[in-house]
Amino acid sequence: MNRDSIRDILQTEGILPLTKYGQNFLCDENIIQNIVDLCELNREDMVIEVGPGLGSLSFPLSLKTDHLACIEIDKGLAERLKESITNATIFHQDFLKFERPEGISIDVAVSNIPYYIMTDIMKKLFGEYSDARKMVFMVEDEAIARIDCKPGSKQYGPLAILASLYGGYKYEFKVPASAFIPQPRTTSAVISFTRAMTADYLTPEFVKFLNSCFSMRRKMLKKNLSGFGSAETIANVLTHIGLNENCRAEELEPGEFVRLFKVLC
Predict the structure, then answer these.
(1) Could you list the pLDDT tens digit for every one of the 265 residues in the chain?
(2) CATH homologous superfamily for 3-201?
(3) Distance from C-alpha of 244 to C-alpha of 136, rounded to nearest angstrom
(4) Is residue 6 within 8 Å of residue 35, measured between CB atoms?
(5) SS3 letters for the chain?
(6) Are 65 and 47 in contact (CB under 8 A)?
(7) Is there a shared CATH topology between the 3-201 domain and the 216-264 domain?
(8) Which of 10, 78, 191, 256 sits in a 20 to 30 Å window from 21, CA-based?
(9) How far apart are CA 44 and CA 60, in angstroms?
(10) Residue 20: how many other CB atoms lie within 10 Å
């Protein structure tokens, strides 16, 4: 899809981009193709796309794989995709409430993530779809600081830990506001992740555990973990795995959260 085709669709079908869903439709064909290429798809790959919108990525993705599932929260756009992309499965649902079908493996996850809900979507993907060998996202460029950061930094939290444990991270390229209709107020970026063995530790339960660890950032970790045992028990566990009993969550390396989770959960 290019700028003219998207404008024609919006005008002809009377579609108004909804601010509440962060709808900015990608219209640069070169960027679209670059994102699809980054997915490195085979025909048999099971691909999940979150927030397909008008299908800027969905159409070229459907040409690369026979197994594309798209989850779209906007009913009108979901119905439109069902009619226009016949070789993909379209779900009209809020991805944050979407239940992954049992017995289905995922090879690649891709999304032009709405900026206002980036953290929640990525946490769900890392926690519930960690079997995917690759993930490719478009996000707000400024939000990278919440993904690519180290312990002790202000931005360090569950998202950065999950991203680190999932695997190799790469900042691919910037995307100007002019590549969208309507244009967002910020610059975007395409990033990719390649699965590593540490992704085996990622589960919905582990995500909940991390959220508990950072529930009150200024408190000591043992305070945040009060629901997992007595203060004495938590202090002993922290000491047992080589941590200061008065440490804060922001001080721990990603692997240390895994060790802590294994003991407490």
Answers:
(1) 777 788 877 788 777 776 767 778 899 999 999 999 999 999 999 999 999 999 999 999 999 999 999 999 999 999 999 999 989 999 999 999 999 888 889 999 999 998 889 999 999 999 999 999 999 999 999 999 999 999 999 999 999 999 999 999 999 999 999 999 989 889 999 999 999 999 999 999 999 999 999 999 889 999 999 999 888 899 999 999 999 999 999 999 999 999 999 999 9
(2) Vaccinia Virus protein VP39 (3.40.50.150)
(3) 37
(4) no
(5) CCHHHHHHHHHHCCCCCCHHHCCCEECCHHHHHHHHHHCCCCCCCEEEEECCCCCCCHHHHHCCCCEEEEEECCHHHHHHHHHHCCCEEEEECCHHHCCCCCCCCCCEEEEECCHHHHHHHHHHHHHHCCCCCEEEEEEEHHHHHHCCCCCCCCCCCHHHHHHHHHEEEEEEEEECHHHEECCCCCCEEEEEEEECHHHHHCCHHHHHHHHHHCCCCCCCHHHHCHHHCCHHHHHHHHHHCCCCCCCCHHHCCHHHHHHHHHHHC
(6) yes
(7) no
(8) 191
(9) 15
(10) 9
pTM above 0.85, yes or no: yes
The token pair at 185 is 């107020």
Q: Please report, as a single letter, which amino acid is at residue 202.
A: L
Per-residue burial over 87-119, b if 16 or more Cβ lie within 10 Å, else e, is ebebbbeebeebeeeeeeebbbbbbbbbbebbb
| All structural domains of the chain with their residue ranges | 3-201, 216-264
